[in-house]
Amino acid sequence: MRIATWNVNSLKARMDRVEEFLGYAEVDVLCLQETKMTNAAFPALAFHELGYDSVHHGQGQWNGVAILSRVGLTDPAEGFGSKFTDPYEGDARLVAATCGGIRIVSVYVPNGREVGTDHFVRKLEWFSVLRAWLAANHSPEDAIAILGDYNVAPTDNDVWKVEAFEGATHVTEAERDAITALCDWGLSDAFRVVYPIQDQLFSYWDYRAGDFQSHRGVRIDLALTSKSVTDRLTWAVIDRNARKGTKPSDHTPVIFDLD
DNA sequence: ATGGTAGCCCTGCTA
After folding, report:
1. Which CATH number fits domain A2-258: 3.30.428.10, 3.60.10.10, 3.40.190.10, 3.40.1190.20?
2. Contact A58/A31 with Cβ under 8 angstroms?
3. pLDDT digits (tens, 9 = 90+) for A154-181
4. Is the CB of A111 under 7 A from strand B?
5. Closest nt by CA–C1' to A210
């Protein structure tokens, strides 16, 4: 089983590239973030014709998350539900479904903008709610995989140059602690199971200033997997070619193979 | 050099 995550930065602008990706990548499950469209505009029929069932939690101008699956898709759920107060209430940032026996969650964690802002505080709160939601709805014994744009580089090996991120978001101790808290519950950063210490392996490069061509990137698109999923993990790949060519997203797909 | 680009909508906001 092959699962993947991709922040497409507008599905409308990226549909050709997504269809191209589905044509060569042979993914069974694909989590999308930043679809930036309403549910009414979501091209479920086009995906169905390519063999994928789908669930989309859309908003419109911003955010928007989806799951595509060709190994079944049942029990779809959107957001944290009524038992939790979402610090970014109204944003479409989480959707879940069971695909091929695994509870798949597609997340778009808030960016946080600047350290010290209200947005940053609520980013950390969003992580707290995610952990509470996880603990309330699942056991670490479950087969669960939370894939998406976490807007956090978990270690210094996940940024192109540590000095370039002094005082910046995505690398603070508080944000990294939030990832650690999810891992302490019973999840693993699946990419680091395959590549424990290798650096300069990125999933996002800013469009500006030739950052991609100059290898100035970060690894913020992650799959956090419970033990039974992690134990099945055989390989992980970053599809750098998807960052090249005509109208690329600023993120690449990150792909995981399970036995 | 507080720059740069891309995508959305009301010509600014978000990333």
Report:
1. 3.60.10.10
2. no
3. 999 999 999 999 999 999 999 999 999 9
4. yes
5. B4
